[in-house]
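Task: sequence design from structure.
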């Protein structure tokens, strides 16, 4: 496993981190979840990314993670880097899903109980809720660190203008933002901004505005990407359209049928041809492409079975791209309609 320095800190994170957003909830096979988590740890993936609402049902991913750690990894807690988040809907009532101090502190306490641990390594504000003042949310993060319930803090999915404000507030209170977490993939970037076209800001059309990635680097925050395979579009699963029973074939979920456009399928086919020339799968090349940017600390992968995890790990065998390969990728990704 390759490890990268996380921003202006002494923390080293694995190039690939394991996310428990999908496939670790109460509706999933617990034995398979156990095998995946243990395989990841054995492969050097020491960072596990959770949130209080991961499941389904909400909270069950943390509960299952805690069960696995208690039985198999309790002696290795100090070798693990555990993160969780709060801010999306979690419990009934007006306090159950926003970025208020009330929600964040209660959520942190609940997450620790579910996982059966004394502290998390990183606690994130999962989103800006559009209501709570940034100062209130950031002060809650500061106080969670000072209470000993988290070692570091992070932010996720904050717009650029507020992202800067978060960094400055946290720095002023001596609890700098360790990690910034944003969705990123070949289908979620703006061509021509940032190294190799990577910007992680699908809505940024003004090149004078810093991207989420650039701003994190400027303020010394590590940067971690989620949804690197565009919910499966950057795998071989959708190279010929929507297969029956796939994520996009279902009426609910994070990949909608209308997102599997002809243009994206065609682009994925071209990228797949390039990946084959590199002796990689499309998914492996998509992960390697993100990691090629030195400002990216880690990429969060998900898996539904151990074989998928093993395939993703092979991406680390080749994260170097020639100038011709990068130019070819930029050309394929140039059409704006590919962006998600």
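Answer:
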């Amino acid at each position: 496993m390759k490890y990268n320095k996380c921003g202006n800190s002494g923390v080293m994170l694995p190039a690939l981190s394991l996310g428990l957003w999908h496939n670790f909830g109460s509706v999933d096979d617990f034995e398979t979840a156990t095998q995946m988590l243990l395989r990841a740890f054995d492969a050097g993936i020491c960072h596990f990314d959770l949130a209080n609402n991961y499941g389904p049902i909400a909270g069950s991913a943390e509960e299952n993670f805690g069960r696995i750690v208690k039985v198999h990894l309790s002696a290795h807690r100090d070798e693990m880097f555990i993160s969780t988040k709060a801010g999306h809907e979690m419990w009934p009532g007006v306090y159950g899903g926003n970025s208020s101090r009330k929600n964040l502190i209660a959520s942190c306490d609940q997450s620790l109980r579910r996982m059966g641990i004394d502290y998390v390594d990183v606690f994130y504000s999962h989103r800006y809720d559009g209501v709570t003042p940034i100062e209130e949310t950031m002060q809650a993060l500061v106080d969670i660190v000072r209470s000993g319930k988290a070692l570091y803090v992070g932010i996720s999915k904050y717009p650029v203008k507020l992202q800067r404000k978060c960094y400055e507030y946290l720095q002023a209170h001596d609890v700098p933002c360790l990690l910034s977490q944003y969705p990123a993939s070949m289908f979620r970037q703006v061509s021509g901004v940032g190294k190799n076209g990577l910007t992680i800001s699908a809505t940024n059309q003004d090149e004078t505005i810093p991207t989420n990635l650039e701003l994190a680097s400027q303020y010394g925050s590590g940067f971690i990407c989620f949804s690197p395979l565009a919910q499966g579009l950057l795998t071989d699963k959708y190279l010929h359209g929507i297969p029956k029973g796939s994520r996009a074939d279902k009426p609910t979920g994070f990949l909608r049928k209308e997102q599997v456009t002809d243009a994206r399928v065609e682009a994925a086919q071209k990228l797949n041809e390039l990946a084959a020339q590199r002796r990689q799968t499309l998914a492996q090349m998509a992960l390697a492409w993100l990691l090629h940017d030195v400002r990216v600390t880690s990429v969060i992968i998900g898996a539904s079975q151990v074989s998928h995890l093993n395939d993703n790990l092979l991406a680390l065998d080749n994260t170097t791209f020639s100038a011709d390969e990068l130019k070819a990728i930029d050309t394929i990704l140039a059409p704006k309609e590919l962006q998600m």
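The CA atoms of residues 7 and 218 lie 10 Å apart.
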